[in-house]
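Team,

Forwarding the record for the chain on the shared tracking sheet. I've put the sequence and predicted structure together so nobody has to dig through attachments.
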Amino acid sequence: EAQLVESGGGSVQPGGSLRLSCEVSGFDFGDLAFGWFRQAPVEGRQGVSFISNGDGSTTYSDAVRGRFTVSSDKAKHTVYLQMNSLQVEDTDVYYCAARHGPGTVDHLMYDYWGEGTQVTASS
């Protein structure tokens, strides 16, 4: 059974850091692309960052570029999102998603989803 399990969320002060993990099982890990999304109250599910395990390419939204870094560890079957310089506006539930094929910002193109992990940046 295919599963994605996120962890690493929590509460930090603005300017702080968190590292999210997405542990993957039931897949051929190397064949997948992964996306990190967050659930905005009005805008809906928004793409944050993407990584394609096939060629290692990564993509970031304008809102997080330069502050967040996505990576994957094929030996551990885990995808990471390192979040630095967190801002109040980054507060949200973050989801890990997977698909066969290249990474894309379109959340509808992802077939597998985790349950999400809460990230809060607040003073």
